[in-house]
């Protein structure tokens, strides 16, 4: 789960990482500041807001009212700006970069730091980035910060501050189960202090059960995804017209790939997961009802999810939810014979082979 | 011969009285696996399908387990795995999904230092027809044979194993790595075992978007692997930045695309199927 900058900076404050003086503003009435100039920053969960005009400045109350209003009414990459962060303008002398994230290949946290900050880390030449991997069993220790400071060639007065910030960032990374803690730019002011200019924090969604203090940011989900999420389904909205219900993430992805390769356009990714519950199937149809596809493909390989359960779910859904578009069913695996018989008794044909089902639904939908 | 599990594998089920724990205990027994004990704190002294239930792993060690099947809820997985490691169990399979990745990272790091093997989390486990099943794969899709299978997913693995079986071929060992960004075993670990395994004559490698594990496996295959490999990669049509069901199946900052994996594998001489059903015919070709 991505946090907004203002939320990330609240966490930074809690961990004693210096951030600029700031104020989170949710409506125009709250647009006030005491010592200008002030920076106006759109709060959106996407990168590149600067280039999109989501960061503006104001030298007085009139400019703040004008520019503040403007930023608040913006949309950036399709996301509506719902609030802004007002911050003191820093006297920037240098811009550094530091982050902690997971290195999937090494299965370890990696710290990356460079004195060439202020730009996307992907644009910084590799030889200018100091990389340091942390052994998860040993954890972080002060020598790590010392080592990185030396490798960055930081002057003594900066080194101490940098090490302090890094150790606090690491504590935040561990204690809040973060996928990413990033400061870019890490600002060295003309007065010589080091301050987190920006703050990016991504928390592992699977860890939210132990971080009840964090608000759920639903802005990352579309309306349809939000409905599915609240009902406990794993759904990704796509822009096609064939509704998909399958079981298992891999098989569901393979179903979408097959549809696409055969000229069809999937409307969604919907994984029934490792359930064996008639109601779970009915609920999936209720979600697809909202998605309004032109056809529905059910692709089940029975394991934990039994084919007869799915068949009963389809029959129930037809009665209770109603299926008013063409539907193609594929059942294979555990209890497929019983499942197929249940469907047959209810005048629903089904395939045993996944590709046959895919080709059928693509043909039916594309000819409508 | 099989890899990781065999007739000598004696399974402990941690969380045996839960829905998944009890159901899969029965299924593993039906397959022919030796399930020798279970744990469920507070329910010691009872039994599930004839398997004795203990309060702690230490007590259960009296039944001499050498592998564990962990199916406790996500918040308790780290503790359960540590309990198994503390008691010296060498093979730790974790079924549970939605385990915080930092917990998994700690388990994997600790296990490695202690010389233990972790499989999963969020995967279907390991099956070797018909010497042992440690996991949740459906019993009826297997046939003993010479194809080794490695995959990051569950259901898609069953789909492909089923096709291998119905085509007349069979499997040596099937290993599900798990769908999370951090897992215990990875492709290279398993390929190293298949390399040493006489029964395995070809490998089917099922991959998906996210991370660079398939690319690293391709590099390994190119330089170190002497048996034919065929592959199928899913997620070709997935939009970037979206998690496709598995926590690890996400294209982030342009990394982890299906194209990158397919081209890395093809560069390593691996035949990559466009559709899952092509796997058996590709296998037959390379086995000739």
Mind explaining what this structure looks like?
The complex is a heterodimer of chains A (368) and B (288). Chain A has 368 residues and is of the alpha+beta class. Chain A has 3 domains: 68 residues, ATP-grasp fold, A domain (Dna Ligase, domain 1, 2-Layer Sandwich), CATH 3.30.1490; 119 residues, ATP-grasp fold, B domain (D-amino Acid Aminotransferase, Chain A, domain 1, 2-Layer Sandwich); 146 residues, Rossmann fold (3-Layer(aba) Sandwich). In chain A, strands 7, 8, 9, 10, 11 and 12 form a 6-stranded antiparallel β-sheet that branches. In chain A, helix 3 packs across helix 4, helix 7 packs across helix 8 and helix 8 runs parallel beside helix 9. Chain A is elongated and about 80 Å long. Chain B is α/β, with parallel strands linked by helices. Chain B folds into 2 domains: 110 residues, NAD(P)-binding Rossmann-like Domain (Rossmann fold); 151 residues, Rossmann fold (3-Layer(aba) Sandwich). Helix content of chain B is 32%, strand content 23%. Chain B is built from 9 helices and 14 strands. Chain B has a 7-stranded mixed β-sheet, with helices on both faces. In chain B, strands 9-8-11-10-12-13-14 form a 7-stranded mixed β-sheet, sandwiched between helices. In chain B, strand 13, helix 8 and strand 14 form a beta-alpha-beta unit. The model of chain B has no long low-confidence stretch (mean pLDDT 96). The interface between A and B is large, with 52 and 60 residues.
List the helices and strands and how they pair.
The complex is a heterodimer of chains A (368) and B (288).
Chain A: H1 5-14, E1 22-25, E2 38-42, E3 55-58, H2 61-72, E4 75-76, E5 79-80, E6 84-88, E7 92-103, E8 108-114, E9 130-133, H3 142-152, H4 156-175, E10 178-189, E11 194-196, E12 200-203, H5 223-230, E13 234-237, E14 242-246, H6 249-261, E15 268-271, H7 278-291, E16 295-302, H8 307-320, E17 327-333, H9 336-345, E18 350-351, H10 354-366
Chain B: E1 10-14, H1 19-31, E2 34-39, E3 47-48, E4 51-54, H2 57-60, E5 67-70, H3 77-86, E6 91-94, H4 101-113, E7 117-119, E8 125-128, E9 132-135, E10 144-151, H5 155-166, E11 171-176, H6 187-196, E12 202-208, H7 213-224, E13 229-234, H8 258-267, E14 271-273, H9 279-287
Parallel strand pairs in B: 1-2, 1-5, 2-4, 5-6, 6-7, 10-11, 10-12, 12-13, 13-14
Antiparallel strand pairs in B: 3-4, 8-9, 8-11
